[in-house]
């Protein structure tokens, strides 16, 4: 199996298969999904099974996901990296608005610090660029927070290759989050740039939001059957094989689904299987 560790920013080692926290909150990222104890138990189970990268955001809930992470895992193991995001205000289920003015970003980051009960966030990601605010001002606000010791590394969420190149001219970027999975490779140019620059790529929707059971199902089903597993672990294993910078953080609210996802780390795909899956898109 390919190397399972990636150094975010060159100095923050994480296991490449992590956990996203969107599955701990309700539909449309609003309110709770289950009980707080169920969510805390799942977070603890993930860490017990070797997860060292937890990906969350201030607007999941909103605020709820960060609170649950702290309730379950604080004080944090020194190997654990909790990545969070700011720059979006959620006003209802599936209702959100970008908010990228420097004072807004500072306020969001400082609120996340309080909720997560930390003095510095390992990876703080700009959830979206605000088109009404110059990019340099948004990145400048995050750079100020980094220089103050409140952020260790800066990441970007949902960017194209041109935006990433422009951002790299302003500040160091340690991670990118874009949609990328077995069936959606629209961010291939961004992935190539991340590989060239040593930037972590955290693909969101790594399981294709259920599409793996529809399009490309024959190829995925064939490989899954050969390994005695389901389509999800195959899709995650493909990502881990596909590029050394890909660090998927699939979300779930189910302990059984969590264990199934994490099993992908030990799923060794053959060259023939990889070729079959590469052609699935």
Can you characterise this structure?
The two termini are 23 Å apart. With 281 residues, the chain is α/β, with parallel strands linked by helices. The chain has helices at residues 36-48, 64-73, 102-116, 135-147, 161-168, 188-197, 217-227, 231-242, 255-262, 271-278; strands at residues 5-8, 12-15, 19-20, 53-55, 81-86, 88-92, 95-98, 121-126, 151-157, 175-177, 200-201. It has a seven-stranded parallel beta sheet with strand order 3-4-5-8-9-10-11, with helices on one face. The chain has a two-stranded antiparallel sheet with strand order 1-2. Helix 3 (102-116) runs parallel beside helix 4 and helix 7 packs across helix 8. The protein contains ten helices and eleven strands.
């Amino acid at each position: 199996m390919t190397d399972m560790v990636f150094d975010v920013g060159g100095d923050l080692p994480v296991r490449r298969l992590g956990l996203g926290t969107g599955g701990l909150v309700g539909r449309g990222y609003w309110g709770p999904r289950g009980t707080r104890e169920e969510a805390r138990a799942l977070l603890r189970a993930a860490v017990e099974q070797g997860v060292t990268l937890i990906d969350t955001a201030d607007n999941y809930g909103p605020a709820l996901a960060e609170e649950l992470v702290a309730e379950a895992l604080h004080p944090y193991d020194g190997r654990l990296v909790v990545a969070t995001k700011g720059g979006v205000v959620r006003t209802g289920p599936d209702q959100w608005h970008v908010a990228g003015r420097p004072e807004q970003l500072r306020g969001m980051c400082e609120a996340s610090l309080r909720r997560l009960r930390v003095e510095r966030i390992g990876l703080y990601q700009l959830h979206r660029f605000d088109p009404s605010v110059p990019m340099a001002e948004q990145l400048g606000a995050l750079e100020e927070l980094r220089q103050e010791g409140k952020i260790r590394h800066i990441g970007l969420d949902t960017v194209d290759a041109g935006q990433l190149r422009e951002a790299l001219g302003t500040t160091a970027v340690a991670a990118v989050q874009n949609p990328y999975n077995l069936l959606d490779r629209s961010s291939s140019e961004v992935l190539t740039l991340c590989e060239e620059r040593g930037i972590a790529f955290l693909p969101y929707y790594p399981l294709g939001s259920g599409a793996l059971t529809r399009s490309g199902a024959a190829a995925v089903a064939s490989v899954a059957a050969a390994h005695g597993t389901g389509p999800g672990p195959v899709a995650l294993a493909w990502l881990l094989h596909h590029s050394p910078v890909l660090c998927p953080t699939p979300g779930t609210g189910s302990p059984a689904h969590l264990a199934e996802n994490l099993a992908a780390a030990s799923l060794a795909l053959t060259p023939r299987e990889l070729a079959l899956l590469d052609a699935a898109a």
